[in-house]
């Protein structure tokens, strides 16, 4: 049975800590962590964890409680807990490269990712804007969609890591068509929702209030949404984001499309931080991720919560079964 790979991310943060918690699981499919084996052993000792670390060589075996499969990726330099080191940026990138290569070459069912620190990657001279963009470029797809989800809410983003002043210019009819096509396709193919119901946030306060607070809804967003509604897609026109996320509006929705990162994600994370996950739609493989950062100050303390990683692994395994 093909494995699911898990990247351990920034070695100075909590990625290794939460990956070690995967030894608590029992899964029929091998779960393999990409990490420096010696670093993981040292972190397990730091956390006083009794974990049998097994170097993965392609064995077809289930994941058993108390054991953790590891594919060794060597560090460039030793890790100091909580201290970023640009010399280990290439180590982080190698995890991502291997995970993408295995997924693209059908040597795995996909990947779940622990957090990385974008700043240290760029400090090392590696242009890196995020996991999502990296996997998009590796897969050679024109557009991907970031979607975060809890057990009761899915929020997809029309734009991702952009300065706020750049968002309005980035929201074009072409981009919206690409994003919505991917969202509809993956809700149907990956989540098996035959007729998805999608609510869409306006860009401006009060969804532009008839043009008094901006024309993007009238000139760009609603014409695109009307074209999908004409095809029988159950999709709203642009709605005021300040009232869209009420329980009454969300009760029958399968997903919300937000126009920018901090429009939809604060609501979602307030509902389920630590239990939410990130899914990259539009890739030719499964990719899920935690909803939090590297938490450098918690590395090696035993205080890091691993719940989001376990939810990300659960979803990846569930999607792999479909």
From TrEMBL:
Chief location category: cytoplasm
EC number: 1.1.1.262
Location relative to the cell: Cytoplasm
Gene Ontology terms, MF aspect: 4-hydroxythreonine-4-phosphate dehydrogenase activity; cobalt ion binding; magnesium ion binding; NAD binding; zinc ion binding
UniProt enzyme class: oxidoreductase
Cofactor requirement: Zn(2+); Mg(2+); Co(2+)
CC terms in the record's Gene Ontology section: cytoplasm
Binding residues for a divalent metal cation: 161, 206, 261
InterPro entries: PdxA, PdxA_fam
Reactions accelerated catalytically: 4-(phosphooxy)-L-threonine + NAD(+) = 3-amino-2-oxopropyl phosphate + CO2 + NADH
Co-factor remark: Binds 1 divalent metal cation per subunit. Can use ions such as Zn(2+), Mg(2+) or Co(2+).
UniProt keywords, alphabetically: Cobalt, Cytoplasm, Magnesium, Metal-binding, NAD, NADP, Oxidoreductase, Pyridoxine biosynthesis, Zinc
UniProt pathway: Cofactor biosynthesis; pyridoxine 5'-phosphate biosynthesis; pyridoxine 5'-phosphate from D-erythrose 4-phosphate: step 4/5
Reported function: Catalyzes the NAD(P)-dependent oxidation of 4-(phosphooxy)-L-threonine (HTP) into 2-amino-3-oxo-4-(phosphooxy)butyric acid which spontaneously decarboxylates to form 3-amino-2-oxopropyl phosphate (AHAP).
Subunit composition and interactions: Homodimer.
Family of this protein: Belongs to the PdxA family.
Protein name from the UniProt record: 4-hydroxythreonine-4-phosphate dehydrogenase
């Amino acid at each position: 049975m093909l494995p699911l790979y898990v990247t351990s991310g920034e070695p100075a943060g909590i990625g290794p800590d939460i990956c070690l918690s995967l030894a608590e699981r029992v899964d029929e499919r091998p779960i393999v962590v990409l990490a420096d084996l010696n670093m993981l052993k040292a972190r397990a000792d730091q956390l006083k964890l009794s974990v049998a670390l097994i170097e993965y060589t392609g064995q077809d075996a289930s994941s058993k409680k108390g054991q953790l499969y590891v594919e060794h990726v060597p560090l460039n330099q030793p890790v100091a807990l909580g201290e970023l080191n640009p010399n280990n940026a290439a180590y982080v990138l190698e995890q991502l490269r291997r995970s993408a290569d295995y997924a693209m070459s059908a040597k795995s069912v996909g990947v779940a990712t622990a957090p990385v620190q974008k700043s240290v990657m760029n400090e090392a001279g590696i242009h890196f804007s995020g996991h999502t963009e990296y996997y998009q470029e590796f897969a050679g797809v024109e557009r991907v969609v970031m979607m975060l989800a809890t057990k009761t809410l899915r929020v997809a983003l029309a734009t991702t890591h952009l300065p706020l002043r750049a968002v309005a210019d980035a929201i074009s009819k072409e981009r919206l068509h690409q994003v919505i096509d991917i969202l509809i396709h993956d809700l149907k193919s990956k989540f098996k929702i035959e007729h998805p119901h999608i609510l869409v946030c306006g860009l401006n306060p009060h969804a532009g209030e008839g043009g008094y607070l901006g024309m993007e809804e009238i000139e760009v967003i609603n014409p695109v949404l009307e074209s999908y509604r004409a095809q029988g897609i159950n999709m709203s026109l642009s709605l005021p984001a300040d009232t869209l996320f009420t329980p009454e509006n969300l009760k029958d929705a399968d997903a919300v499309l937000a126009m920018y990162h901090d429009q939809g994600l604060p609501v979602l994370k307030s509902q389920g931080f630590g239990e939410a996950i990130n899914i990259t739609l539009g890739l030719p493989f499964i990719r899920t991720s935690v909803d939090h950062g590297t938490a450098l100050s918690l590395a090696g303390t035993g205080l890091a919560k691993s719940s989001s990683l376990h939810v990300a692994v659960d979803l990846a395994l569930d999607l792999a079964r479909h």
